[in-house]
Amino acid sequence: MLAPVLFNLVFTQVLLKAVKVLDIGAYIGLGKTQLLVQPAPNTMRPKPAITIDRVQLKRKEILKYLGRTISAGGSLDEEIPSRIQKASQAFGRLRKKVLQQKLFT
Question: Signal sequence span per UniProt (predicted)?
Fold first, then answer.
């Protein structure tokens, strides 16, 4: 149970260093940065509030990141419909291109 706490402390220190001293080559846009907390299963933990340079990070229950939907509970209830919709759109675009081929006209 100590590993998540240590990871959180190390990650927070990296964020602070990136914001205060840009010597690690990273910039964190505090206006866009969001926080998603995923506690270990069957645990009750207080939800942390992380503040960097007097800006409190917004805590989210569902987060979109790199086209994926991540939920605080680890559920795929939001992700599966999103993937189905994206696959349907891609198939629709592909179908139009295939049907425009001279072989099918």
Answer: 1-18
pLDDT tens-digit map of 9-26:
667 767 666 655 555 566
How distant, in Å, are the alpha carbons of 23, 84, 89, 99 from that of 94? 46, 15, 9, 9
> φ and ψ at 58, to 5 degrees?
-75, 130
Distances (CA, A) of 22 to 19, 25, 26, 31, 52: 6, 6, 6, 17, 14
Q: Under 8 Å CB-to-CB from 61, ≥6 apart: which residues?
A: 36, 71, 72, 73
Taking the model in full, what pTM does it have? Answer: 0.48
| Cβ proximity of 59 and 37 under 8 Å | yes
Give the contacts of 39 (CB within 8 A, at least 6 positions apart).
45
